[in-house]
C-alpha cells in the first residue's frame, strides 16, 4: 500500500520548531515517493513561510504542495502571492460559522480565477470521507455540493467550478510514485 499524500500542519502565523521538523520529514517523503504534501494552515495563516520552507529550502516543487484552509483567512493579497508560487490553494471548510467562509469564499475564488490562477484552486469540506460531517461538526460534503457549489457557479461559472471539483484535484493528487 502506498500513501496518496503526506499531510502536515503549520503554526499560527509562523512555523515553530515542530512544524519545521515535520515539514522536513514530509519533504523527505515527497522526494522519496513523489506524493503531494497537503498543509494544514492554522486559521489559514503562515502560507508564505510554508512555501519558503517546503519549496525554497527543501526543494519540493510548488505544484506538489496544497495549502489548506485558506478560506479561514480571507486575505486576497496573500492568496495571490501563494498562487504565484505555483502551489494549489484549498478552500476547504465551508459552513464553519466561526470562520469567514461561505460568504467571502466566492470573492476569493473569483479574484484568483480573474488573475489567471483558476487551475490551482481546490474546494473541500475538511472531512475524512465523503459522507462525514466536517471537522468541528459542520455539515461536510453534502453541504459543499448542495449549497456551496451553486453559489460558486453564480460567482465564477459552471466551467470553473467543474474544473475546481474534478480536473484540479485530479492533477494536484495524481500519483507520481517512485
Summed up:
The chain has 178 residues and is α/β, with parallel strands linked by helices.
Written account of the structure:
The protein has helices at about 15-35, 45-55, 75-85, 105-115, 140-155, 160-170; strands at about 5-10, 35-40, 65-70, 90, 120-125. It is built from 6 helices and 5 strands, in the order E-H-E-H-E-H-E-H-E-H-H. Helix 4 (about 105-115) packs across helix 5 (about 140-155). The protein starts with a strand and ends in a 6-residue tail after the last helix. Strands 1-2-3-4-5 form a 5-stranded parallel β-sheet. By secondary structure, the protein is of the alpha/beta class. Strand 3 (about 65-70), helix 3 and strand 4 (about 90) form a beta-alpha-beta unit. The protein has a single domain (about 5-170), classed as TIM Barrel, CATH 3.20.20. This is Metal-dependent phosphotriesterase family hydrolase. Keywords: Hydrolase, Metal-binding. Belongs to the metallo-dependent hydrolases superfamily. Phosphotriesterase family. GO terms for molecular function: hydrolase activity. It holds the Pfam family PTE.
